[in-house]
Design goal:
Helix content: 40-55%
Distance between the termini: 31 Å
Shape: globular
Strand content: 15-25%
Number of strands: 5
Largest sheet: 5 strands, parallel
Length: 149
């Protein structure tokens, strides 16, 4: 199986894991010559706050791809990928993090999804849920989990 598209899913807590995520994706996508799709999923509340903070025009609805492209974490990752000549694109979505990541993986024909997270106890996952776990169980392709420090 050729690795043509790597979907890197980032969210509001991934600013602390940029180094780990960028290194992992570069190590995987670089040798394969794969495109990296940087995907940022927002909940409805997060989306409204980001649109307001980034001062999008109040007329009409802001495009999730455009909002994601202007997000600080996404911009930092894009800079790092461009520095090593990786082909990139940005996708944004609004809704349940796990389900939207799975949907984006399907829509972009991803060969691999990369998600970040932190170590959680089984009880923590059961009580609070786990986006990474939801993606791992439902993604249409393999998933690489990158743990932050």
């Amino acid at each position: 199986m050729a690795l043509e598209t790597v979907l890197l899913a980032v969210g509001p807590n991934d600013a602390d894991r940029i180094d780990e995520l960028a290194d992992a994706v570069t190590d995987i996508a670089g040798p394969a010559g794969a495109e990296v799709v940087v995907a940022h999923v927002f909940t409805d509340d997060e989306y409204g706050n980001v649109v307001e903070r980034l001062e999008f025009e109040s007329t009409g609805e802001a495009d999730p791809d455009e909002v994601a492209d202007r997000h600080t974490t996404v911009r930092e990752l894009l800079k790092r990928f461009h520095d090593v000549d990786l082909e990139t694109s940005v996708r944004g979505a609004v809704g349940n993090h796990g389900q939207q990541i799975v949907d984006l993986a399907k829509a972009n024909d991803a060969d691999l999804v990369v998600v970040g997270g932190r170590k959680r106890s089984p009880t923590g996952k059961a009580v609070f849920g786990s986006t990474a776990q939801e993606v791992m169980l439902n993604a249409p392709c393999p998933v690489t989990f990158v743990r932050g420090e």
